Amino acid sequence: MPNRVPFNDVLLSGVGTPEQAELLDSSPRSRVWRVRLTDRRLVIVKQITDTGDTGADADTRFARELAGLRLAGRAAGPAVAPALLATDPAARVMVLEHIADLGRTDDWMPGYAESLARLHALTGPADAGALPVGSGPTAADAESFLKLAGALDVPVPPAVPDELARLLERLDPTPHHALLHGDPCPGNDLRTADGVRFVDFERASLGNGLIELAYFRIGFPTCWCAMSVTAAPLTEVEDVYRTTWRGLTGKDVPGDLADACAGWLIQGDALVERAHRGTVDQFARLPAEDFEWGYVSARERLVHRLGVVADMTRDHDHLHAVGRLSSALAGRLLRRWSNLRPLPVHDARPW
Questions:
Q1: Contacts of 337 (CB under 8 A, 6+ apart)
Q2: Region 115-131 average pLDDT
Q3: Dihedrals φ, ψ of 93, to 5°?
Q4: Is the dihedral of CA 283, 284, 289, 293 positive or negative?
Q5: What interhelical angle do 160-170 and 320-336 show, nearest 10?
Q6: Which residues lie closer than 8 Å to 228 by C-beta, 6 or more apart?
Q7: What is the DSSP letter of 71?
Q8: Which of 10, 228, 241, 243 is deepest in the core (most CB within 10 A)?
Q9: Run of H or E residues at 305
Q10: Is 181 helix (H, G, I), strand (E, B) or coil?
Q11: d(C-alpha 281, C-alpha 278), whole Å
Q12: How does pLDDT run across 317-342, given as a tens digit for each residue?
């Protein structure tokens, strides 16, 4: 039964006995309960399910979340994730500290950026192999992006294919070992009196933290709640992130934020929710149909990303031609579909 909390004898002896349980909203890939124990403590119980997946995939997601939570548990000072209290690997169940979210707030982004940098800085080269290497754009993604330009009759500058090939080389995550959350969207961040804590580490990996810092510019690409961040908050959050990272590591953030944004731009799968990724060429769909995810359409997401990359690469040494193509593609989309809306601006935390 979905409302029955899956506690075995090990969890009962290690955590306590459930007295009352409330099934919470979650993705189809997990079940989550808020549980009151007989000693009146609250905990969160999460079970990774194999609904729509193979059992092997569910096992992998469970293992990644456990590894991510354990690495995140290294944080000195304010925590950046809930504490892991107990596990039942056979049933893919974990018991987590309950965190009371303070909810909607103005000026939510600086605290988010600080905690994101603190999360990323927890791991290093010695942790190689603790989590999978982060995924990123591929040659197939670059080819699909160029085919979209062709389908929309937008000329591709001759230098673009070479720029994209070199971009893929620079975005190779292998040399980087930041602890990436994998889906750091509003809703997966809980605001507490001590700072932001992240939840749902099923897609945790090791890579370059700029891939997730880029969320602010590129419109939160793995999130249903795509949004635009205006200039002043954007400058502040990026400064907070870089300052926090430098204070913890003694080094500047490696890599180029323009590269990270361009990497998100050329991934067609970043236009759809996780269940639809890897199924079809999403860019190939765009000329004939628009499709919504949340309250924003794929074409609207793409126009935003094209504009970001065009703005960031006007004087860029390695992406100048990609920037010119991005500007031309954005113009073509807006002329052909004049009803496309800009992404909503959320200076206040939307929920």
A1: 290, 299
A2: 97
A3: -115, 140
A4: negative
A5: 110
A6: 219, 304, 342, 343, 344, 345, 346
A7: H
A8: 241
A9: helix 298-312
A10: coil
A11: 8
A12: 899 999 999 999 999 999 999 999 99
